[in-house]
Known about the structure:
- Catalyzes the phosphorolysis of diverse nucleosides, yielding D-ribose 1-phosphate and the respective free bases. Can use uridine, adenosine, guanosine, cytidine, thymidine, inosine and xanthosine as substrates. Also catalyzes the reverse reactions.
- Keywords: Glycosyltransferase, Transferase.
- It catalyses: xanthosine + phosphate = alpha-D-ribose 1-phosphate + xanthine; inosine + phosphate = alpha-D-ribose 1-phosphate + hypoxanthine; guanosine + phosphate = alpha-D-ribose 1-phosphate + guanine; uridine + phosphate = alpha-D-ribose 1-phosphate + uracil.
- Helix content is 0%, strand content 57%.
- It is mostly beta strands.
- A hairpin with a 7-residue loop joins strand 7 and strand 8 (76-79).
- The two termini are 23 Å apart.
Amino acid sequence: MSQADAQFDNVSVETRANVYHDGKVTSRVVKFADGSHKTLGIMLPGEYTFGTEAAELMEITAGSLEVQLPGSDEWLHIEGGQSFDVPANASFKLKVHSLVDYCCSYFK
């Protein structure tokens, strides 16, 4: 099942939003019983740079963007239903073309 169709049961949600880039990117943390967590968020059109601590799987549930992954000069086009991985302790760039809905999973 893709995250676009996912329902998370038996979780807790942090009601305080994570707000980035002057409010153009927001997310909420969803915590699972096993101690793992994901963030569910929205990005408005714009260009952004993010850094990671843990490895991430970014699943785009709606919208379109381009991503420049660490160590690459290439921009990859990503649309709703697609995803990309980002390694731990890295930086990546996004060019968001339309409102993007996303789910981000974190790995140790």
